[in-house]
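Supplementary Note 3. Input sequence used for the single-chain structure prediction.
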Amino acid sequence: MPVAFLCSMINKTLKYHILIILLLKSILLNAQDINLGLRINEVSRQERETFSAIVNNTGASNLKLRNYSIELIGEKINQKNTFQRINIGIYAGQINQNKTRYFSINGKTITLNNTQTALGYGLVYGVGKIHSFNKLIFRFGVEMSGRYYTPWVIATTIEYFDTNNVNYQTLKFNDTYNPYYIFGATLLSGIHYNFYKAFSAGIEFGNSMYYIINKGTEIRTDELYNASGNLSATETESTQKNYSQWSISSLRSSFSIYYSF
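The predicted structure, written as discrete structure tokens, is reproduced below.
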């Protein structure tokens, strides 16, 4: 994970410190112990492909996917080693895809570049049980979450090249999608090691079920540029969307670190 990107996400999360303090105050009263933590998750995937599935049509494809999440955790430990927690999170994702296709029948080439970005904010409430054995700490519980994702954009650029590899036409699409909401429930388990005084670090695993809601208007803008790079045509269209769906993820792992006081 790039350091600058991580610092930027932490900075955005800390801007909500007043809300965090108020929420934590409501659950941390009369606590036997209090833990403050940070949970980080990154999912990345890269795919490369060379293809010649069609006669006179060869090419290559490169896809990179990255999803990040950072959550600040406030956790109250009761006398019976049960816990309550509130998490405030930032969630970001990006997909980059590049494709090149060469048509040997006419010597022309088409390249496609596609970028998708999304940014969301979330609140998590969890309850569960903690078991300690020497320096090992085990957590088992349930979390209920809600997330809001800001309008996200898919930017696509298609370039056309002639037999002399000179660009003679460029087509750009910009798709702006609605804000959407995700509500979920997660079965949580984790193991941490008390590596230094009040600090412990480890891995948490989640099996989750999510309900996704997307309603509103999606807008698409098409722009056509000629060989000189001048805009020659443009078109905008809008589509009403109203859908919902269920999603399931299994054994999603996150790194987390806690400070106890």
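Residues 3-260 form one domain. Residues 92 and 119 are 4 Å apart (CA to CA).
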